[in-house]
Write a structure and sequence with these properties.
Largest interface: A-B, 48 and 30 residues
Strand content of chain B: under 5%
Shape of chain A: globular
Number of strands of chain B: 0
Structural class of chain A: mainly alpha
Radius of gyration of chain A: 23 Å
Number of strands of chain A: 4
Largest sheet of chain A: 2 strands, parallel
Order of helices and strands of chain A: HHHEEHHHHHHHHHHHHHEHHE
Distance between the termini of chain B: 49 Å
Largest sheet of chain B: none
Shape of chain B: elongated
Strand content of chain A: under 5%
Radius of gyration of chain B: 16 Å
Helix content of chain B: over 70%
Order of helices and strands of chain B: HH
Strand order of the largest sheet of chain A: 1-2
Structural class of chain B: mainly alpha
Oligomer: heterodimer
């Protein structure tokens, strides 16, 4: 006769005591958000002095922000190429991080990824787009990556040959980095805080002496086109993140495209136990990058889109997914 | 194959970092960032 203890299935027992990655990941993301914008601490606590370090990580932290303590590897590469200098240390860091953890920095450290995760959590559900559209759209980020380095690289070569001054003049603001000019992290952490700082006093006069519609319209028309474009991109970023989880990481981010190349061969990966796995779709449903996990090889999989967020590992009711390294 | 690729990538990365340190790239980068004016169009 079965005792009450023996009626508990091994899978249920396993699920009850299963370690969840969601909370530790969110804590790491929060700490990273504060750490990469640590210069902001000097504004809150004047006794703390934080100096930015000229070091690049494969995440989005803009050189346009006065709050950044470290910078995006993409931004530093573009900036160095525009001088022209070859970014040895930045490239080396990207190669080292990519070979060891692949795209894990996108899932664990990147502040823009964290903001998108917050938006998805606020929404409370994951909406997916059709597999066909997803498959074709995810190649877009590689085009953005190639386009960025085609401009920056050709400018660097032209400048190194002593022929690039007219090319630089023709590129205008894009010469220091095409992606730096339009990246939403620069707008969010750089331009908007600066605009708020500049407009704080005029905001109070706005309350006491409200402008006419004609004045508002005139001011809107006087907005510089690049600023308008950047704010539109930022609004688009938020809307897209609300509609599709991790939209920016999936389809636009050139840093993600750069790290996706290394993700395929990285030391860290995931494995699926074929004995425990019942091929239920829980892991695929929870994956914010819309990866077809069940179609990947079970021994070890490093999908280029995988950001090692561990949502699939947490979602698996049978505990069949786990980390595999090497 | 994958392990070899990862090891080779790490080796290239480490070499690039060493070359950068030898060429005092951090100082150059610091100067570039010091002279950089953030966009506020």
């Amino acid at each position: 006769m079965a005792t009450p203890e023996s009626t508990v299935k091994p899978e249920e027992d396993l699920r009850r005591f299963k370690f969840k990655w969601t909370l530790p990941r969110m804590i790491v993301q929060l700490i990273s958000l504060v750490a990469v914008n640590a210069v902001a601490l000097t504004l809150i606590f004047p006794n703390i002095k934080v100096q930015p370090i000229p070091f690049g990580l494969p995440i989005l932290v803009s050189v346009n922000s006065h709050l950044s303590a470290v910078y995006s590897a993409m931004d530093l590469m573009q900036l160095e190429l525009s001088q022209p200098e070859f970014p040895f240390i930045v490239v080396g860091t990207v190669l080292l991080i990519g070979a060891v953890v692949g795209r894990a920095f996108c899932g664990w450290v990147c502040p823009i990824g964290f903001i998108q995760d917050i938006i998805t959590n606020l929404k409370g559900r994951l909406d997916f787009i059709s597999p066909r559209t997803h498959q074709s759209s995810k190649k877009l980020k590689y085009l953005f990556f190639l386009g960025t380095f085609l401009i920056s690289g050709s400018l660097a070569v032209a400048l190194a040959l002593g022929e690039g001054s007219s090319y630089r003049a023709a590129l205008g603001i894009l010469a220091t980095g095409p992606f730096i000019a339009i990246s939403p992290d620069g707008t969010l952490f750089g331009t908007i805080p600066t605009l708020i700082g500049l407009g704080r006093q005029s905001f109070f006069s706005f309350l006491t002496h409200p402008p006419t519609i004609q004045q508002v319209w005139t001011d809107l028309l006087a907005t510089p086109p690049l600023l308008a474009l950047r704010i539109l991109i930022l609004i688009g970023f938020f809307c897209a993140a609300w509609r599709v989880p991790r939209f920016w990481c999936r389809y636009v981010c050139p840093t993600g495209a750069m790290m996706a190349v290394f993700q395929k061969y990285s030391v860290a990966g995931l494995k699926r136990d074929p004995v425990k796995c019942t091929k239920c779709p829980h892991c695929e449903i929870k994956c914010p990058m819309q990866i077809n996990i069940l179609d990947l090889p079970w021994e070890k999989f490093n999908d280029p889109e995988c950001i090692m967020c561990m949502e699939c590992v947490d979602a698996c009711p049978h505990g069949s997914l786990s980390i595999k390294a090497p | 194959m994958k392990r070899t690729s990862a090891a080779f990538t790490m080796l290239v990365g480490l070499t690039a970092v060493m070359i950068g340190l030898y060429l005092k790239e951090l100082g150059t980068l610091s100067q570039i960032l010091h002279g950089y004016v953030p966009f506020l169009p």
